[in-house]
């Protein structure tokens, strides 16, 4: 599934460029939308926080980035914030707003990345969440003819495959003989999970009956570990061992197996339809921008004039 974030429709914004007014304090206006005017200083302040939010979400350090890259992002932020303002205006029209609990959770997550929980950070988080919500509502309103879904499914059905999956338990022993004893007990219909609790040396999984969870691999993929190789090989027999590893010897039991499966039209319909809606989403946002009356003044936001 895609993350629902509106695209920046720069071509539309470029057509709205003009010569911007300035305030008496020499802090020129860079964006106008209705009665709202955003100055260069306000946008620079917002960018300084927004770029840290972006870095935190991507798990990167701004200190390691080329200053020229940061400057390019700053210049591009003019377009980005303009589109954000249009989407926020649409959200207000629809009476959509992120809840305080949602905002608090978002801010708390970013504080762990070292971003101060100042008012501007809170506003950016709220704006992002609100834009996601209004974008999702717009997405849901896009009507896709069923025939288009059928056509796309036919074209991409070979890629719509659920992976092969195997779920397994294991009992770890110190010697091959001990593993053989486990296999003999299983032949007498002793419960595998009970044996794992009583006999497995792997204390992390013994308490859950030796459960190692599920592993999956797509068409053409190879198993990523020895356990996976053994598990996929053992899917028909169910139980296999002794298997030697660096931790000792293991008896492995496959308790669930799902073969790879090509999704039918009914199974894939919702995802295929959503894919088609996403293709039309930029046009919807483009229309909102072009009809908003927003004005941008990029000459007031050049690197030489920006300061800080």
How much of the residues is beta strand, in percent?
Answer: 15-25%
Helix content: 40-55%
CATH class of the largest domain, please? Mainly Alpha
Which ranges are low-confidence, i.e. pLDDT below 50, for 5 or more consecutive residues? 1-19, 304-308
Order of H and E elements:
HEEHHHHHEEHHHEHEEEHEH
- Identify the CATH architecture of the largest domain: Orthogonal Bundle
Enumerate the strands of the largest sheet in spatial order, edge to edge or round the barrel: 5-4-7-6
Distance between the termini: 38 Å
Total beta-strand segments = 9
Average pLDDT, rounded to a whole number, is: 85
Which fold name is given in CATH as the topology of the largest domain?
Triger factor/SurA peptide-binding fold
Shape estimate: elongated
Q: Main sheet?
A: 4 strands, antiparallel
Q: How many separate domains?
A: 2
Tally of individual helices: 12
SSE class:
alpha+beta
Radius of gyration using CA atoms only: 28 Å
Task: Considering the chains and any ligands shown, give keywords for the structure.
12 helices; single chain; alpha+beta; disordered C terminus; Triger factor/SurA peptide-binding fold; 4-stranded antiparallel β-sheet; Chitinase A, domain 3; 308 residues
Short summary:
This protein is an alpha+beta fold and 308 residues long. It has twelve helices and nine strands.
